[in-house]
Batch of 4 targets.
Target 1
Amino acid sequence: MNVPWGDLGTVLMAALFLGGGVIVLYAVGIRVLSPASADGESAGRPTPLRIAITSLCFAICAAAVGYGIYTLL
């Protein structure tokens, strides 16, 4: 049995970086939308810029999940 270790390593690194990247991007979106400030007080409603950044993070995550499902079919 001949295992192509270089290709296996490439797939492993892609899975770790892309899989972890989606999770980190989602966490960044949640954190940006969070109303708490650094001192622990409520900062009120999020600004339109924060909503836009969060929407972009979630859209990229949704696109990555959609692409993953598409490639499986």
Target 2
Amino acid sequence: MESPLTDKRPPYGIIAILMIGAFISMLNETLLNVALPSIMKDLDVNASTVQWLATAYMLVNGVMIPATAFLIQKYTVRRLFLTAMSLFTLGTIIAGFSHVFPLLLAARMIQASGSAIMMPLLMNVMLTSFPPEKRGAAMGLFGLVFIFAPAVGPTLSGYLVEHHSWRILFHLVSPIAAVVLLIALFILKDKKGKVDLTLDKFSLLLSSVGFGGLLYGFSSAGDKGWDSPEVYLTIAIGAISLVWFILRQNKLEKPMLNFRVYKYPMFALSSVISIVIAMAMFSAMLLLPIYVQTIRGITPFKSGLLMLPGSILMGIMSPITGKLFDKFGGRVLAVVGLSITIFTSYMFSKLTLDTTYTELMILYSVRMFGMSMVMMPVMTNGLNQLPARYYPHGTAMNNTLQQVSGAIGSALLITIMSNRTKTHATELADSAMKHVTGKPTAEMVAQMKQEIAMKAMLEGINDAFLVSVGIAFVALVLAFFIKRAKQAEDPEESKASQQKVVNKLAEN
């Protein structure tokens, strides 16, 4: 990557601007989680529909990110960042003035198209700016900024939603995004020589249909059920397109997304573990606000405040984890972190109508502590094994799979919650009717329905958390196979150096 990164000293100014941009886009994503119940009420949509605000965001990321490996190699950091920030700012402004759900959803998708470029771009700059032995600490700093957004997001969102409309969340972010865009316009300056790369349009179509089909299918299951043709046909079309896309990439000389990164075992392992973790991680992020606000009637501000200590703890741990990774490697951290995550997820599957606020806060904080030891060390260990020219492909692959698995995981867990809620509601209603003596009054029936709905939703949430325990356990088993990765030799560079030797011998 011929850009600002040809200097020996890391380009801290560029990294700072990229981090602020990534922070704002991350903040905007977490701001919305606590606001979902308010949006459901205001725009008159159900849980399966409103989760599309999170899923569609990840859907666009999943479709866009495969192209970022090509974009990072083809264009300058300046050009990519300005395009990404412009799209993000435009989407945020539209979202702030949305009065119907489809417009809000479209605005979120415009935001996501900008966010999709920012994350891999920042990670690629970080990888090419620091040597492997300093990369853990650098990625720890990256994680700190990354995690500070979730720390601030839910609490800030809860306070604002309680005192204003949820639209204030977008009105707050849009001017900050515009200022970052202006600063970047004047400060970001980097050059790139002309790169002879063309995007294979058919590959882009296949990846869009592939990732998009899978995400749409899984996300629709909550509303339409797994037996709906719209669900299983889109999943089938997505899977076929994805297989076709992978086969095509392996035949191309310059693929859009290079699947040869999976020849490196530690990268392949880290990729699988990251997918599983992303699926499990979304359980608490999506299910907890629904439990706290809808079932327990806790205010949005207190709901956000509940998550603050955990997010702060995760933020504090991030640079420490980075240094521990440089010293001990990824396996120990991943095993300990995943064990904590499994235990806390299991405890979350035992929620009752009387679980105290303090218990919830402690459980969530311990869960975040566990998570802080896993994601960044596992990902960094995998990327460390790749030759430098594979970094854009490695980061794009990781980010794509994380978004796709996160969206599939969240859709799957919401679907499990919805379906199990219906099952429990039927069971509870049958049980209640057996114990009713005489003819119940309309008031009694209404109260009974409300109690059944609450208890059924609670059991549905518990079942979804239990599934996340199983998902996290798979990651724990895989974590035992992690080894400290050393950068592999680039086969192309080896061939080139061998050719030079041959040429010199021929000359002599």
Target 3
Amino acid sequence: MVWLWVPGLIVAAFATRWGAEQLAAPLKAVRRRYGFTGAAGGPLVALGSASPDVGINTVSAVTGTASIGLGSMLGSTVVSIPITVAVAFAASRKNRRDQDRDAQSGGLTVEKDSVLVDALPYLATVAVFALLVLPAPWRGLQLIDGVIAVLVYVAFLTQALLRGRGGQRGEVSWSTKQTLRAVAGVAVLAVGSYILVTGTRQIGSTLGLQPLVSGLFITAFMTALPQVFTTWSVVRSGQVTSGVTSVFADHAMTFTLAVLPLAIVGVSVDNYPIVLVVMGFVALMPILFAVLSRRHKLGDQYSLLFRDVLVFGAAVVVYIAVVGFMLVVS
């Protein structure tokens, strides 16, 4: 009967994403109203779109399974960036075919600001998180770590908005129906987060997995799944840079605001070698994005080619293989 949780987890993952999108809607309206660029708008919209990570960490902290939240936030940040790049690449090529352009020309093009405003500041938040959680004298998460992480997100959001001013402004209207959808989004998000954490605990217990490992390979992949559909939809609508960079903004929030619930209850790092290796792959993904995209400059844009997408895929395969091997031999 425990395997009935599997479809439940899938439904819950999409439910939390739907709830997050309802919360992100008013923030998208703010972005349009004040004319922030696509790269700068990502961190703002992430306050809503990354809320599933906050919800999962809150539920895991309240239910005494904080290690599931820690594993989920680490694992999802490794796989989400490659997934986003691959899906965005496919969606952009579909756009070109629909517009009768040469399907073999170019690649996935994004604004240059996507590196300086999103990828590299995200890498900085990862570095701060590593400094808070990994060194032996203060290994794990304590309340002071949560306070520092929140301040880091404030700095991340501020720099993005200040550097991303000057975009095209537009008129925005807001209805009572949209307000009700946002409220419903909060409720759905809460229920979906509870199911994700509970289902992960049940399946992980059946398989004999540690909570951290359950978070890394069950919750993380479930929460990354809706990213496929979200990225496809946003890129197909023509918002290529926002569709790609939102993943950096989402996970910058994961390593900052979403840390607070875990820090309040306190989380120890029980499997330090695995956490250290996973953190290495977490940092690798934005580095790959910055390096690979900057290799291909197209005027005021950067581009990722098909071979670059394959590099991201290879990195995920290596990640799964290395961590899987460590689990087997440990």
Target 4
Amino acid sequence: MSDALTHAVDAILDRGDLAHLALFLWACAATGLAWFALRELSRSNRRFEEFVTAVAYVERLLRNRGR
């Protein structure tokens, strides 16, 4: 078992597949982080829009009350 594992690792290193694996993992991590950041930005924008809508509603109430 140990010889087979060593041979497999040597084959990966000889062919340069380890570099491709590292690049793939980096790309997956970067994509995941970008997706997470965009999702959080979208949620933040939605909360801000709700806040602005609520402020506008209160402002309309106060304007109508003064009439």
